[in-house]
Amino acid sequence: MGEFDLIARYFKRPAKRSPLGVGDDCALLAPAPGMQLAVSSDMLVEGRHFLSTVEPARLGHKALAVNLSDLAACGARPLAFTLALALPGVDEHWLEGFSRGLFALADEHGCELVGGDTTRGPLNICITVFGEVPAGAALLRSGARAGDDIWVSGTLGDARLALEVFRGTVALPADVFAEARLRMEQPSPRVALGQALRGIASSAVDVSDGLVGDLGHILASSNVGATLDVDAAVSTVAAAGTTGLGTEMLRTCALSGGDDYELVFTAPPSARAAVEQAGKDSATRVTRIGRIEAEAGLRIVDAGGAPVAQRFGSFDHFAA
């Protein structure tokens, strides 16, 4: 099977909303009047971002989900995406599963494939996603203010727990591991919540490299500091009640885990009811885990307000 046959069989679909999709040198996009384009790219590399044992359908889902999560963090509505795919060879079983998982999530969010590229090489997936957001309404990292609450969506740390099982450092019951692995391999981008938070949240970022690191982007962009309640964050870990998981491991997973693709966002205390309603409207759990402060730096405390000595980091592709 040649390159263009591969594209035609597994990835070419008629464009429904875009003026021009797959098949020409460029796709054409037409955002609605008064809207701005939101654009994000993410790359997934085998052995770095996913294991070779992941099911192709789950990988197709995740490849798009991590990009949709960026749109969610800006409060944008998905429009379209491009796919650049390097493959070591043509594996029809793999391509069928991958494209099925990819398009299932794309259809769920009305986001259509409009172009890209394929080539031979080590397995590498790069997606660029396009969304639209009303002019001036995008959620940014730079809007947090002293006194704001810090919130997180969904659950934290489950993907990290699954990774620790693969590493052999943690043992989980089969059903708990299956759920944690699903969260690692098939995350849920919080697109509906991101749009519901427009006009409510003062800042937002998606949690891809760990809560501490990604919250740090908000603090740096907004020139503020924060106090974070580690126990409130741990309360969101789905496996938190599992026997044998020590406090240190749970805290590490919640604050440094990464691959959660949840939203961490800020909002003034006067907006608490509105945040809760946004969570209900988008069928997404939201949990208040700290507060923004004028003093620079991140202070981590337990539920009683005592400082936590444990150190927490975040994922860095180029760290030694």
Automatic annotation (TrEMBL):
Ranges for domain PurM-like N-terminal come to 23-133
Leading EC class: transferase
Residues bound to Mg(2+) 4 are 25, 40, 70
Instruction: List ligand-binding residues for Mg(2+) 1.
Output: 41-42, 117
InterPro entries for the chain:
PurM-like_C_dom, PurM-like_C_sf, PurM-like_N, PurM-like_N_sf, ThiL-like
Q: Does the keyword Cell cycle apply?
A: no
* SUPFAM superfamilies in the cross-refs: PurM C-terminal domain-like, PurM N-terminal domain-like
Q: Which reaction does it catalyse?
A: thiamine phosphate + ATP = thiamine diphosphate + ADP
Q: Which GO terms describe its molecular function?
A: ATP binding; magnesium ion binding; thiamine-phosphate kinase activity
Its annotated pathway reads: Cofactor biosynthesis; thiamine diphosphate biosynthesis; thiamine diphosphate from thiamine phosphate: step 1/1
- Residues forming the PurM-like C-terminal domain are 146-301
What this protein is reported to do is described as: Catalyzes the ATP-dependent phosphorylation of thiamine-monophosphate (TMP) to form thiamine-pyrophosphate (TPP), the active form of vitamin B1.
* Protein name per its UniProtKB record: Thiamine-monophosphate kinase
**Which sites bind ATP?**
116-117, 141, 208
Which NCBIfam families does UniProt cross-reference here? thiL (TIGR01379)
Which positions bind Mg(2+) 3?
Answer: 25, 70, 206
Q: What domain of life is recorded for the organism? A: Bacteria
Residues annotated to bind substrate: 49, 259, 315
Q: At which positions is Mg(2+) 5 bound?
A: 209
Q: Which organism is it from?
A: Variovorax paradoxus
Q: What is its EC number?
A: 2.7.4.16
User: Per UniProt, which keywords does this protein have?
Assistant: ATP-binding, Kinase, Magnesium, Metal-binding, Nucleotide-binding, Thiamine biosynthesis, Transferase
State the family it belongs to.
Belongs to the thiamine-monophosphate kinase family.
* Binding, Mg(2+) 2: 42, 70
Q: Which residues form a coiled coil?
A: none
A Pfam family this protein belongs to?
AIRS
Q: Which GO BP terms, alphabetically?
A: thiamine biosynthetic process; thiamine diphosphate biosynthetic process
